[in-house]
Amino acid sequence: MHAWLCETPTGVDALTWTEQPTPTPGPGQALIEIKAASLNFPDLLIVQNKYQIKPPLPFVPGSEYAGVVVAIGEGVTQLQMGQNVACLAGTGGFATHVLAPAALCMPLPEGFGHVDAAAFIMTYGTSWHALMDRAQLKPGETVLVLGAAGGVGTAAIQIAKAAGAKVIAAASTDEKCALCESIGADVSINYSTHPLPGAFRDAIKAATGGKGPDVIYDPVGGDFAEPAFRSIGWRGRYLVVGFAAGGIPTLPLNLTLLKGASLVGVFWGDFAKREPQANAKMMAELAVWYAEGKIKPVIDRTMPMAQLKDAYTHMGSRGVKGKLVMVN
After folding, report:
1. In angstroms, what CA-CA distances link 138 with 151, 162, 237, 262, 325?
2. pLDDT digit string (tens) for 264-302?
3. What are 235-254's pLDDT values in tens digits?
4. Other residues' Cβ atoms within 10 Å of the Cβ of residue 173
5. Cβ atoms of residues 122 and 272 within 8 Å
6. 63, 105, 128, 141: which has the fewest Cβ within 10 Å?
7. What pLDDT, on a 0 to 100 scale, did the predictor assign at position 273?
C-alpha cells in the first residue's frame, strides 16, 4: 500500500508519499481499500499541529474516506467482505488502504457512490447537528449561512431548505453566490461587494425586511462574527461552527441581552462520541434524505491521491466550492 505520511507536523510540505506493508486487521477492525477521501479544513490544521486532536507521530492524515472492505478482524459482525462503506476516523484517509474501526464504518446503500460518500459524513453531520439539534430550526425561519460556498456551508443550505427555512447565503464572489442559489439559497450576499461591517449589515437587513435572521450558521469567525451577530433577530441563535478565517472573535456579551439571543457551540465530533445513538439516528435520516434527492454533496473537483499537495494548495487559495475529493 501507499500513504501520505506525516512524520513532523510542520505543514503540507513535510508530507511524503511512502510505500508500506499492507496491514492485517485486528479485533474490531476492517481493512478498507480506499476509493475516495475528502479534504477538510481540519486536515490542514492537523498537519500544521494546530488541530485540537494531535495523533501520535508518524500518522497518515485524511479524516474522511470511502471504499471497499477487503478484510475484517475478529469480532466484526456488522461488515462483510466487498461491502462499500464510508468512514470518518480522523486520520488514515490519504492512502490506498487503511485500518478502520469497524464501529465507525457506515455501510453505503445501493447507489451511494464513493466520491459523494467521502464528502458526506463530516459536512452533513456537522450541519444537521448545528441546525436541527442545536438551533432547533423550524419551518419558516430564516437562516444566514456564512462561508456558504464551502463544504459545510453548502450542506447547511441544503439541510435548511429541506427543513422548510428561508436561506441567505453569504460568500466572497459572484460565482460562489450563484452556486449557493443553484442549490437552494433564496438570497445571496457577496461580501466582497458588500464589505464589512456596514454594507454587509445593510445587505442582511434588506434580505430579512429589517427583522434579522433567526439562525446564523458561522464556520468562518474572524471579522464576520460581530457584524453578523449585531444583525441577528430577536431570540436568534448564533451557531459557532468554526474559524476558517483564522481569528477567534471576541463578542460584546451585551448583544446577547439586547437581542434576547443565544450563542450556541457546535462540536459535532464530540456529540457523535457522547451521544452515539442520537448520532446514528441522525446519519440514518441523512442517508434517507440523500436517497430522496433532498441533499447531495457539492464536489468542487476530484484529484488523484498522488496530487494531494496540489489539492492542499487549491484549498488554501479559498477557491474551493463545496468539497475537494482525492481518488485512487
Report:
1. 23, 11, 12, 16, 32
2. 999 998 898 899 889 889 988 998 999 999 999 999 999
3. 999 999 988 887 889 899 99
4. 16
5. no
6. 141
7. 84
Which amino acid is it at 112? Answer: F
Distance (Å, rounded) from C-alpha 32 to C-alpha 109? 17
Instruction: Output DSSP code: residue 95.
Output: B
Domains in the chain, CATH or no CATH each: 2-120+297-327 (3.90.180.10), 123-269 (3.40.50.720)
The three three-digit cell numbers of residue 249, written as one number: 472573535
Residue 157, phi then psi, degrees to nearest 5: -60, -50
Task: Provide CB contacts within 8 A for 106, sequence distance 6+.
Answer: 85, 86, 87, 117, 121, 283, 287
**Distance spanning both ends of the chain, measured CA to CA:** 11
Place of cell 419551518: 139
Among 122, 201, 207, residue whose Cα is nearest residue 167: 207
Report which of 155, 224, 144, 229 is spatially closest to residue 187, judged by C-alpha positions.
Answer: 144
pTM given for the model: 0.89
Q: What are the angstrom distances between the C-alpha of 244 and each of 141, 146, 159, 183?
A: 26, 10, 21, 22
High-pLDDT (> 70) share of the chain, %: 100
